[in-house]
Structure prediction request, 210 residues.
Amino acid sequence: MKPRKPNAISRRSFIKGAGAVAAAAGLVHVRPASADEKPLPPGVIEKLGPEATTIELNINGKPATLAIEPRVTLLRALREHLGLTGTKLVCDRGACGACTVHLDGKPVTSCMVLAIDARGHQVNTIEGLGTPSNMHPVQAAFVEDDAQQCGFCTPGMVMSVAAVLEKNPTATTDEIKHATAGNTCRCGTYPHVFAAALKAVKPGRATKDV
Ligand code: FES
Ligand code: FES
Prediction:
């Protein structure tokens, strides 16, 4: 066996160090305040699991109660526990944007959020954005412009575009491209996506340079 260099980092010390950094950065789960739960005192870390625990979420404006293990992501809670399969599972590691939902109006990759951390927050999914008979303007524009091929990236794209237009109804092409930078389309439908997104922009701006 090779002698260890004096400054070499062992796997064990790396994991211990990484844990300390995560804790310092606030990544250790601390129960958020919600309407019917008292917030924990500062610095107190909630201990949950590993067995299933009952939690309440607010999904598309409605309360949802589910029993899940604390390790379950928001994405899997939506798809596997609540039957909301419009949010897609592709990479499961925050790299593709297919699982984008809104958390308090902000787009997040739901595969990177634990369901328990969504307590006390408003979660909106593609199902809450509009229905086939009453589509959100972004959904309607995507249908009109045929802005999908296989459709796996589409719910995430729509959610990212809807979020930026909610914040900035007159977003420019560049702002839309920036807002969807984390959404990967393996079918390469980007020109149709941007054209559809620009259609959903409020009137009053030029739809140029797609
Ligand atoms: S499935 Fe979440 S980012 Fe790809
Ligand atoms: S339409 Fe297939 S991945 Fe975008």
